[in-house]
Design goal:
With about 70 residues, the chain is mainly alpha-helical. It is built from 4 helices and no strands.
């Protein structure tokens, strides 16, 4: 599995945490589920930041396997 840096992304705390949640998941997660898990880890987490992070990860090799086809 490539790292954030190897696909040209800056390693931010939110990106690392979202990626960690996705890697630990045994079933597909909704954005609300990811947000809920992040809030339990980090406290207050902005929904828009989570959406943007997920979209960024989906566009790279890192998140492609974790992303379902977007509507």
């Amino acid at each position: 599995v490539p790292s954030l840096q190897t696909v040209g992304l800056k390693s931010t705390p939110v990106r690392r945490d979202v990626l960690g949640v996705l890697r630990k998941a045994t079933t597909p997660l909704s954005v609300d589920e990811i947000l809920e898990m992040l809030q339990s880890i980090r406290g207050k987490t902005d929904r828009v930041t989570v959406y943007r992070t997920i979209n960024t990860l989906c566009e790279t090799q890192i998140g492609r396997a974790s992303c379902r086809e977007r509507v």
